[in-house]
Structures are given as structure tokens and as C-alpha cells.
Amino acid sequence: MISAFNNAQKQLSEVIPFLEKEYSDKKRFIKAVSLLKKPQRLLSKKISIKLDNGKTKTFKAIRSQFNNARGPFKGGIRYHPNVTEDEVKALSFWMAVKCAVVGIPYGGAKGGIVVDPSKLSQNELKKLTYAYSEFITPFIGPWIDVPAPDVNTDGQIMAWLLEAYEKKVKHQSPATFTGKPIELGGSQGRTEATGFGGVIVLKEYLKKKGINIKKTTVAIQGMGNVGFWFAKIAKDEGFKIVAVSDSKGGIYNPKGLDVDNVLREKEKSGRIKSNITNEELLTLPVDILVPAALENAITEKNANKVKAKVVFEMANGPTTPEADEILESRKIDVVPDVLTNAGGVMVSYFEWAQNLNGYYWEKDEVLNKEKKIMIKAFNDIYDEVKKRKVTYRKAAFNLAIKRIIDAMMLRGWV
Fold first, then answer.
1. Would you list the DSSP string of 134-189?
2. Is 364 helix (H, G, I), strand (E, B) or coil?
3. Which of these is catalytic: 110, 127, 232, 371?
4. Does an H or E element contain 287, and which?
């Protein structure tokens, strides 16, 4: 089984030789790097709830708080049967990197419950969410750790988490969670933020390469919130989307899909009419391949079959380090997740700032702020790619890890 955390640590180790040259005090640098090899705190507990049938069921709950040198821990909570400590640690590391890449003042965290939420009633889901909130309450807060939605969680889950948290601390604290419903202090633009930010970065990338959007074919694996909005916005911007998929399979038309129709069908029936598998989608002859589902989609087993000119990551950790090497040797650019899908955490940051100030922005203002930061972050990375002659991932990690290490050194941690 592929270890997501080992992959994350390999990504870290690959940029150490570049960064070490920039620090005169090698001992301090090595100590700082060692602190980035494990979370600052890993919380794990069995939580139990009474089911509707009167029986008690126990679930494993986890929260990894990776590094808070640059600001409060930040990261989502996922409800999924395959949640593991290994995965959560990796995702919390990537979140620390992601926040540093786009320059927002957060560290990294991630949490989850080992559960299939589709097998619980609404009442049971609420009880489980309350129990999880009670478990993490002593370790979170607007200046400590700010959770958000992730796989299989949404605004309703955040509302329940907030209510349970506020009952414990006995005061209102909307800035403790982001991704909340608008009625409870959520931000305009949060729903489409990740997909929107990804399309902004893709447009900047193509602009640098001198490639015409309207002639660019795109295949998107994954139709959750991220894939859905990426597809919708990319289509509106003029991209030719030829394939999309969900967990059950995908649809491919080399002449281009009627994306609105496919998305309507997905919303109505809950699935996409399939004529290809997810594995086949990854090997289509397209300009841009967008893995937007779960991690480890592209591995050493299928990287040689990828026919796209660019892999544009919208999921977290969809390409393994071994696959990265293969793609690099084949001159296929990989534009990394720590940049491309940072729009979600960025608008979470805006939501947090709005909650702390009790002042709210219109949607256009939110998306314009996001656009500005995403363009700057891409250009910083592009300059690093050109300067060091490295991949986009190494460039992003160079910038981010240096920012985190500098913060640790300024604080006197090492």
C-alpha cells in the first residue's frame, strides 16, 4: 500500500539540497528540517455514539497538527472509511506547505473519522459530529487550529461542529471553523473557491506558454466539489472539456462535452453516464489532465501511459514521487496541488478574517482577492522554475519550506 506520508517526506527531502545552500548555520537548518518530519501533535481517540436502533458504535477519530510557525493550524475534516493516521499526517504537512506557497498566515492540520457517512442517518451523523467536536475542542480555536470541510463534510457538518464547540467554551466563536453556511458567518465565494482558483492558475500557466485556451483539451477525474466547479468555470472560460468522471466511471467525447448537460445529469441522478473507466480517463490523449479526486491516482504503474502534455493537480497528493520522476523524464509538466487547489484554504482565510472583524465582503470582492493572490503565487513559482531549472513542484516546495523554516528560526525554535 502506498504511504501518503512517505510520499510527502520524499517531496520534502528532494528540496533540502537546494535550500541548505541558503543557510550559513547548517546545524540550525538540519534541526529545522527534522521538525518538519513529524506533526507537532497527533490526536487520536475512539469516539462512540448511540445509533438509532439503540446500539452503540465506536469510530476512530484523528487530528494531525503539523506546524504552526507561520500561524494557527489550518485544515479540513474528512469522513471516509479509508481515513488513516498516515493519510492525515500527509495532508496536514501538505496544508502547511500550501499555506506557505500562497503566503497566508496559517500552519497545517487535517482531521478525520473512519466512517462511511452514507450508512448513517442524519441524526447519527449529527451525534458523531458533536462527539468529534468535543474530542478536538481543547485543541482548537480561532488562534490555535481552524478546521474546515473536506471529503464528505460540508457546511452543515461545520454548523454542528461550531454549535458543539460553542456549547463547550460557552461563547460565540465563528472564526473557529471555516466553510460554514453563509447564515453562520460563512464567506461568499467559498463553495466555488478551489475550482475557481485552479482555473486562474491554469490560465496563467497557458499564458506563460503562449497556448490558446480555446484549443486546449481537458480531462477531469473527479466530480466532487472541486472537480465540479473546475469543470463549470473552465467551460465558461472557453476550455474544451472532453472527459469528466466520478467515482463510478467517466464520459469521454473527443469533440467536446456539453459540460452543463453532464453536470445537470450528475446533480439529478447522482452519477455520470459512463463510457470509460477512471483508469482510462488518466491515459486519454488530451492537453491537460486534471486529477481532482483522491490521492495516488497517478503512480509508477500508470505514469508511462499518461498522454497529456500537462498534469494539473486539483486533488491532494494525486501523483506519487515515483510517478513525478517518470513524468519529468517524459517532459510532462506537473503543476502541483499545493498551488493549484489553494483557493479553498485562501477563501477559508478570508472567512476567518471576516469573522474576526465582524465585517463581510461581497462575492466579487472575495473572488478578486483570491485571483490576485493566486496569480502572484503562480508567478513566484514560475520565476523559481526558471531560476533554478526545477519542476513546478520543487519550485513550490523550495519557496514554501524556506518560508516555514525562516519562521521557525525567527521564533527561536531552533
1. HHHGGG-BTTTEEEEE-TT--HHHHHHHHHHHHHHHTS--GGG--S--GGGTPPTT
2. helix
3. 110
4. none
Q: What is the CATH number of domain 193-335?
A: 3.40.50.720
Measured CA to CA, the distance from residue 169 to residue 85 in angstroms comes to 27
CATH of segment(s) 40-174? 3.40.50.10860
Residue 11 zone, left/alpha/beta (φ > 0; ψ -120 to 50; rest)? alpha
Cell reading at 160: 454542528
Closest by Cα among 235, 153, 194 to 339? 194
Helices marked H in 21-153: 26-35, 85-102, 122-136
Query: Residue 235 corresponds to which amino acid?
Result: K
Cα angle value 182/370/93 (rounded, 5°): 90
Distances 237 to 49, 203, 231, 234 between C-alpha atoms, Å: 47, 9, 10, 5
Task: State the 10-residue block means of pLDDT for the chain, 414 residues long.
Answer: 88 93 95 97 98 98 98 97 95 96 97 97 98 98 96 95 98 98 96 96 96 95 91 95 92 92 83 89 97 90 97 94 96 96 96 97 97 97 94 96 98 97
Would 40-174 and 193-335 be classified into the same CATH topology? Answer: yes
- Looking at this protein, which amino acid is placed at residue 272? I
Residue 371 annotated to the active site: no
Where along the chain do its domains lie? 40-174, 193-335
pTM across the whole model: 0.93
Q: What is the distance in angstroms between the CA of the first residue and the CA of the last residue of the chain?
A: 35
According to DSSP, residue 52 is labeled T
